[in-house]
Design a protein that fits this description.
5 domains, alpha/beta
């Protein structure tokens, strides 16, 4: 069903477009010899049901590429002929991309034109999933829009596949919405989403009013009221305004009208249908059995395919046997905002390749520079220029785009100078950088991790564990800002895990076997603009 609404639609969110872009990016990465990108994108591509790959085969591929990923090579030499064909097809596309124009390449990728080895399953898949006039045509319309934009974006008046990929990257990096204004999406028969205010003066054969619940359809009772001796009307809407607004919504329908509400919020609180409507239109409860579980749909669409019974455990047996739980792995398992157990499976057990952000590259370079700073301090040869030079060398190894490197090089130089000159950050001569603690037993679990910096004060039997963080500092681990709550929880929990790790490790137990008397966990926010923002710590 075509869909039109007030805000621009980003064609990059279309399911068909996402698959087309993934193939285009893999093809371009093969052309440029970028194996890292190929390893990151191939597992994402192959997990889509359009390729009809058996989930157990995918699991074996993931496990086989866990330590040293070479996904394309694994496909080329796989016993499954279909996987070999996919790999050869991608290589063929790579060869064609340097001499074929973008429109022809997209025809190969979409499946509108036969190509060597196989014809892309994208067209057939989206045609078989639904009617010809739904997602497939919407996706095709979106791709046409991308082709036009890529043609403008391409060099010397002709767009190649590389220009298409560059366009997508620019749009993503800048948060740009690429909207589709084609006749299909803007057609008169498209489903249109409006606010009630925007719908004034319009009429439709059928109207659906959604979220007709009390909280959405009554005035806000909070706020300040004028003094009783002043005959002023309070600012804001009153109940009659909402009655009139519902009247506007209902009278937009010429033939069919449906009003929907829900009886409970996500946290289980009871909710009533809006008073302006519940006594006027009779309600009909909807049996939850009639509805599809959105979580299940998302897992099936986006997640790595799961195996039934004991197959998963059998395939993971060798990995789980000596698996060491790191603080990052534990936090990713618990953090449902990042995918929780599913993300843990993909990232830490199967080790599916994952793209690295520019900010992560900056953080890696900063860690290398601070490690070098401690080693210089330990030898009595600390030199700020040498630390900055170490940062520059580490940043160059991250293989950033030229523009990204030119942005983060002076930023890091400024941050390091401010950290040591302005904030007077001190490193002890007996401090230890990048301390690795492996095979630490906590009950029946094996845990381990790398600590950015450790200083053991033997005189006071005190251990100070520091973790370096780039980005905006936290003002407190007990923040009331809901937007920062997960970040604060992760930082605090990470320090607690590090403390447990040190207390249980042989390295810091001491001769008595009791561990350090006191452990201080400290977050060092190297991007802090003032000394006050620089550190947050816990005594554990």
């Amino acid at each position: 069903m075509p869909l039109r609404y007030e805000q621009q639609q980003n064609i990059l969110n279309d399911e068909a477009v996402r698959q087309i872009i993934a193939i285009a990016e893999i093809t371009d990465a093969l052309t440029t010899g970028d194996e890292v990108t190929v390893n990151q994108l191939l597992p994402q591509l192959l997990q889509h049901p359009l390729w009809k790959i058996d989930p157990e085969t995918l699991w074996h591929l993931a496990i086989g590429n866990r330590a040293k990923p070479h996904w394309l090579e694994s496909l080329l030499h796989h016993e499954d002929e279909q996987l070999q064909i996919i790999a050869h097809w991608l290589l063929w596309l790579s060869g064609q991309s340097v001499r074929e124009p973008l429109p022809r390449m997209l025809e190969y990728i979409i499946g509108l034109k036969a190509s060597e080895h196989l014809t892309s399953p994208i067209r057939q898949y989206f045609l078989s999933v639904s009617a010809v006039d739904t997602p497939y045509l919407a996706g095709l319309s979106a791709v046409r829009q991308l082709v036009n934009l890529a043609s403008d974006f391409g060099r010397q008046g002709s767009a190649a596949l590389h220009d298409f990929v560059a366009l997508i990257q620019v749009a993503r990096d800048n948060g740009r919405i690429i909207s589709d204004e084609s006749l299909f999406v803007t057609a008169t028969e498209a489903v249109e989403l409006y606010t009630v205010h925007k719908a004034k003066g319009l009429e439709f054969d059928s109207v659906f009013v959604i979220d007709a619940v009390e909280g959405q359809w009554k005035p806000n009772v909070h706020g300040r009221k004028p003094p009783a001796n002043l005959p002023l009307k309070p600012n804001g809407d009153d109940y009659n305004d909402y009655v009139r607004l519902m009247f506007v919504a209902l009278t937009r329908a010429k033939q069919n009208l449906c009003v929907s509400a829900y009886s409970a919020t996500a946290n289980g609180s009871d909710v009533l249908a809006a008073a302006v409507i519940r006594d006027v239109l009779p309600g009909r409860p909807v049996d939850p059995a009639e509805l599809q579980d959105p979580v299940t749909i998302l897992e099936q669409t986006l997640g790595w395919p799961r195996l039934e019974g004991s197959q998963e455990k059998l395939l993971l047996q060798n990995i789980l046997g000596d698996f060491s739980l790191s603080p990052t792995a534990l936090l990713n398992f618990l953090d449902v905002t990042k995918g929780g157990p599913q993300y843990f499976l993909e990232r830490h057990l199967l080790r599916l390749p994952e793209g690295q952000s520019v900010s992560a590259a900056y953080g890696n370079a900063m860690h290398d520079a601070l490690e070098h700073a401690q080693r210089l301090q330990s030898t009595g040869a600390f030199d700020l220029a040498a630390v900055i030079n170490a940062y520059e060398t580490a940043l160059a190894k991250e293989q950033l785009l030229t523009a990204e490197f030119e942005r983060y090089l002076p930023l890091g130089q400024q941050v390091i100078t401010r950290l040591f000159n302005d904030h007077k950050y001190e490193l002890q001569t007996d401090g230890q950088p990048e301390v690795v603690l492996n095979a630490v037993r906590v009950g029946s679990a094996i845990v381990g991790g790398k600590l950015d910096h450790v200083w053991h004060d033997a005189d006071d039997n005190k251990l100070v564990i520091s973790d370096y963080k780039t980005g905006k500092p936290l003002t407190s681990f007990a923040t009331r800002d809901k937007n920062l709550a997960v970040k604060a929880w992760r930082h605090k929990s990470q320090l607690q895990f590090y403390a447990l790790l040190a207390q249980k490790s042989e390295k810091y137990r001491g001769s008595g076997g009791n561990g350090p008397g006191e452990v201080i966990g400290r977050m060092v926010y190297v991007d802090a603009k003032s000394p006050r923002e620089l550190t947050r710590q816990l005594t554990i």
